[in-house]
Design goal:
The protein has 182 residues and is mainly beta. Helix content is 9%, strand content 75%.
């Protein structure tokens, strides 16, 4: 898995450093995600809101098909409460869990369906970190591969609106974002 992550990073770096910056974009957005995981002896199901920023590059392969490497960083908003939480063998009752950070590295294939609408499918490497507020601990960290699909709308020059659904292990998310092309 580390080899694949390194490969994705190398591909992104090569494209960012060997192509003009005319096809560079950045994006900001909102993400809603749900996840199930085990921490200590607890099986946890949580839902989070977060914001993200990303940077990427458009590599035109044909008139209709574009390759899009992208790196994004997210930060959780708020907390989710889990009851019946055990930590170190002790029953704490409730624990407030927050999504600390998420990092995504993706490569998408984008298809221009009918202007101004386009669709895309992605391979995603994602790393998420969760924190326990009462225990003051890093509860869970996960990194794995998944898939994403979505659509974009580009009615205004250099500005897209994106809707993306992704699935990485047991983490499911829905993103709404705005992409600005430089």
């Amino acid at each position: 898995m580390k080899t694949i992550v390194k490969y994705l990073l190398i591909v992104n770096v090569i494209f960012f450093t060997t192509h003009s910056f005319a096809n560079v974009f950045s994006a900001v957005g909102y993400e809603y995600s749900s996840n199930e995981f085990s921490a200590q002896t607890n099986k946890i199901s949580v839902n989070f809101n977060s914001v993200y920023v990303s940077v990427g590059y458009l590599i035109k392969l044909s008139d209709d098909i574009t390759l899009v490497p992208e790196v994004s960083l997210g930060k959780g908003l708020g907390k989710d409460e889990v009851s019946g939480f055990r930590y170190g063998g002790d029953l704490l009752g409730k624990e407030e869990i927050s999504l600390d950070t998420s990092v995504n590295i993706s490569t998408s294939v984008q298809y221009q369906t009918e202007y101004p609408l386009y669709t895309f499918a992605s391979i995603v490497y994602s790393k998420v970190d969760y924190k326990g507020e009462l225990t003051k601990s890093d509860l869970y960290s996960d990194s794995s591969f998944g898939i994403a699909a979505g659509m974009g709308y580009n009615q205004i020059k250099d500005l897209d609106v994106l809707l993306t659904a992704s699935s990485v292990e047991k983490r499911k998310s829905l993103k709404l974002g705005i992409r600005y092309h430089f």
